[in-house]
Design brief:
The structure holds two protein chains of two kinds. Chain A is built from nine helices and no strands. Chain A is an all-alpha fold. The chains are: A mainly alpha, B mainly alpha.
Chain lengths: 213, 85
């Protein structure tokens, strides 16, 4: 299937979803709320302090979405529209409460390397910058399906700085595109990639400790 | 992140910092070629990139957070009542 066909199919699915919502289909509505809850909460938490406030922002957003359903024109995708409302609501709160993560500090947020420098050969070695000992050859399928490993990944994510958490959650848990993440967090593509890189590298390191440690 | 313009080969230490740009398709064709060339000759980095892919797959299996029941109920009521006010 080509990209255009995929996009066409997505648009058709979205038009159908919108029609169901406008017709008052509660199952469709609940599924939509459930699907976006984690991301909405994570995005809200990068703008406001505390989980309780973030939950309120998510709830206010859905109330606004319900009110706005008839007016939604479909120029952006439904989830882009929902996230834009969320960001607006969160910012209004964030201004009042002083945001938990000043975005000017984004790029400087924890600059630790992906892999500890001592795992590579030094400048005076014949092969500077090469592995001293290779990382493990994981059996991808087994690892990804193991419940305990998934639990370890969850706690690794929970320990990340808030913006990194939100980026990895949106990209790798919920499957949002990089454009959607950039729009929701108001960061550049390059910054989004830096945050994603740090988050994934950190989670990999924690998994490595768990699997090969 | 590592600067690829200054030399014709990438070290393992650079590979681990470039892997996200590579997976995101953000490297130039020349940079991507250098990156892949390194993987062809280096099992360590090949396994490292595989570990990253496995990490992404593992994170992808995390279950989505559940909507608190009180919020779920409140939103459902609002959805039912919409347009009736």
């Amino acid at each position: 299937m080509t990209q255009a066909e995929l996009a066409g199919r997505a648009t058709a699915a979205e038009a159908e979803l919108l029609a169901r919502l406008r017709a008052g289909d509660e199952t469709a509505f609940e599924a939509l709320v459930a699907r976006h809850y984690g991301t909405m909460l994570a995005v809200a938490q990068t703008y406001v302090k505390g989980r309780a406030t973030a939950e309120e922002v998510v709830q206010e957003t859905w109330l606004a979405v319900i009110q706005g359903l008839e007016r939604f024109e479909g120029r952006a995708s439904l989830k882009t529209w929902i996230l834009a409302i969320l960001v607006n609501k969160a910012k209004t709160r964030g201004v009042r409460e002083a945001r938990s993560v000043p975005f000017t500090a984004l790029a400087g947020e924890d600059e630790e390397p992906a892999v500890a420098p001592e795992r590579f050969r030094g400048a005076n070695d014949a092969f500077p910058g090469h592995w001293r000992a290779y990382p493990g050859n994981w059996s991808a399928d087994e690892v990804a399906r193991d419940r305990e490993t998934i639990r370890v990944a969850m706690s690794a994510i929970a320990a990340l700085p808030p913006t990194q958490q939100t980026v990895i959650r949106m990209r790798d848990v919920e499957g949002y595109s990089s454009e959607e993440v950039c729009a929701a967090l108001e960061v550049s593509e390059a910054n989004q990639r830096v945050l994603l890189h740090r988050a994934r590298s950190r989670v990999r390191a924690v998994l490595e400790e768990h699997l090969d440690g | 992140m590592a600067d690829l313009h200054s030399h014709e080969h990438v070290s393992c230490q650079e590979v681990v910092e470039l892997v996200t740009d590579y997976l995101e398709g953000a490297l130039s064709p020349d940079e991507a070629a250098l990156f892949e060339q390194h993987l062809n000759f280096c099992d360590g980095c090949d396994w490292y990139v595989e570990q990253l892919r496995t990490t992404i797959a593992t994170v992808g299996r995390i279950e989505q957070e559940e909507v608190p029941p009180a919020m779920r109920q409140k939103l459902l009521t609002a959805f039912r009542d919409r347009g009736r006010s």
